[in-house]
């Protein structure tokens, strides 16, 4: 606006100056009669300038007035919106006796008392469910934040060059298992004329074809022919409200223990499917459980970074073990029942005296979070499956590292060791691998599932094993040959855990929807 005003003033001054100069020039040249011409022009110019200024000011005033009207209208609309809900509030219902005049809403003390009563009822509404959901969301956010933080820290520690070197090691190890048949020698020119055929003698055995198999399988004393298996569902239990991430059975085959992300552990009668006990001491989800060989102690590992020991079959809590800096993902108990081993997302393995509930030692190679643990049946080898796709082996008695097995680039989520010193690993890429622990040799690798392999269970006879996957299937395999014997579909979604009964006639699966199925072999 100030620019317009300066321009108009400058135009006025310029017109006046031009009129004065024109009048002086006219008088100086004795043309006084011509003085009227510049004066008239000046008057016309000034009149036009004045009209423009007036129109400009009028527009400014109109614009300001319109803005004020709009602002007042918006404020009135806001006030109306505030007042209307109060008008629409229902008046308190007052019982009126027959024949009496109904009361009038005048703001009397009785009406105020009724309104206060109604407000009190509104304030007393049970908000525990909503608060529980909010607390659950906060917990999930905290867990997600922890997982992301650990993953970022791991990626920062593992440089690209190191990870590429690991890939090359895995490829070279797999390539070393390939047997390339040597080509048959070409006949020399001087031997082009063949000699007459002669009968075969012991000194000249007939030529044999090169082996067709690329991988040498382990030898068994009396390999059994694989036969198809049939399983039927005996019980389907709606056991938990979240993932059933771990299962365990007492050595006498009487009690089934289930651990879930809903923070609880439940004990069931394996024969009838009856719920016996609910153990609810953990603050966050339960990742793993393990039962001692004597069947008197249950250990549970949780997202709350603790390990709890329970007495069986009573379910009485005994001890709480602390020391891990992250969620405890895996548990294993030595065959002699004296040592408990725990693996955590903090990349450490801790060994505990089970009877004294004391820490014995801590092992780590700082290669990533620990997803699975297994101890060989003879108690000599401790195996750890990591988030970096490697399996690290330790000598259990001396706590000295033995070797590192590279078979996958995804997390090794489940491992078991057979009495024949064969290790079976299930990976996040849906594959399973069989290793000979005596030689460190990869015997075979199969693309078993369409989703991550979340559970592996070895049958008591040692001839077959079962794998469970996030693709919703349970598959049973022949251990010596790797042949598929049976495929079972989990109706309630992803399979998160598996365990065989001690006699091998029952196979129990836990799903991501909280269901537990007890399968019996026909």
From TrEMBL:
<dbReference type="InterPro" id="IPR019775">
    <property type="entry name" value="WD40_repeat_CS"/>
</dbReference>
<keyword id="KW-0677">Repeat</keyword>
<feature type="repeat" description="WD">
    <location>
        <begin position="405"/>
        <end position="445"/>
    </location>
</feature>
<feature type="repeat" description="WD">
    <location>
        <begin position="446"/>
        <end position="487"/>
    </location>
</feature>
<feature type="repeat" description="WD">
    <location>
        <begin position="279"/>
        <end position="320"/>
    </location>
</feature>
<dbReference type="InterPro" id="IPR036322">
    <property type="entry name" value="WD40_repeat_dom_sf"/>
</dbReference>
<feature type="transmembrane region" description="Helical">
    <location>
        <begin position="20"/>
        <end position="50"/>
    </location>
</feature>
<keyword id="KW-0812">Transmembrane</keyword>
<feature type="repeat" description="WD">
    <location>
        <begin position="321"/>
        <end position="362"/>
    </location>
</feature>
<protein>
    <recommendedName>
        <fullName>WD40 repeat domain-containing protein</fullName>
    </recommendedName>
</protein>
<feature type="repeat" description="WD">
    <location>
        <begin position="363"/>
        <end position="404"/>
    </location>
</feature>
<dbReference type="Pfam" id="PF00400">
    <property type="entry name" value="WD40"/>
</dbReference>
<feature type="compositionally biased region" description="Pro residues">
    <location>
        <begin position="182"/>
        <end position="199"/>
    </location>
</feature>
<feature type="repeat" description="WD">
    <location>
        <begin position="237"/>
        <end position="278"/>
    </location>
</feature>
<feature type="repeat" description="WD">
    <location>
        <begin position="488"/>
        <end position="522"/>
    </location>
</feature>
<feature type="region of interest" description="Disordered">
    <location>
        <begin position="178"/>
        <end position="214"/>
    </location>
</feature>
<keyword id="KW-0853">WD repeat</keyword>
<dbReference type="InterPro" id="IPR020472">
    <property type="entry name" value="WD40_PAC1"/>
</dbReference>
<dbReference type="InterPro" id="IPR001680">
    <property type="entry name" value="WD40_rpt"/>
</dbReference>
<keyword id="KW-1133">Transmembrane helix</keyword>
<dbReference type="InterPro" id="IPR015943">
    <property type="entry name" value="WD40/YVTN_repeat-like_dom_sf"/>
</dbReference>
<keyword id="KW-0472">Membrane</keyword>
<feature type="compositionally biased region" description="Low complexity">
    <location>
        <begin position="200"/>
        <end position="214"/>
    </location>
</feature>
